[in-house]
Amino acid sequence: MTLKVFQCKECGSTVFPARYVCFGCGGAEWRERVAERGTIDELTTVRRRIGAQDGSDVLLASVTTDAGPIVIARLERAMRAGDAVRLAIDEQNRVLALPIA
């Protein structure tokens, strides 16, 4: 699945996740935009997750999408700040940041 962000029809501000009211102008009408790519800003590793079945580490990154909003995404492997990624949604509705080959 593709990641969708939301653009205010009145002022053009783009947000994720969806909101009832635009923080920029107070507008309440949105259009969906696809956010296919982004750039990694920061990374972190979540260790020893309580209740996790496999107990493995999870790599997370804050990613600035080409559409504008910043999202928190899972990584498949270690990457670096500044790396370009392709964004997707998995079957559990998690945002994924995938390396661009």
UniProtKB/TrEMBL annotation:
Residues 7-30 form the ChsH2 rubredoxin-like zinc ribbon domain. It comes from the Bacteria. InterPro entries: ChsH2_Znr, NA-bd_OB-fold. This is ChsH2 rubredoxin-like zinc ribbon domain-containing protein. It comes from Caballeronia cordobensis (Burkholderia cordobensis). The lineage of its organism: Bacteria, Pseudomonadati, Pseudomonadota, Betaproteobacteria, Burkholderiales.
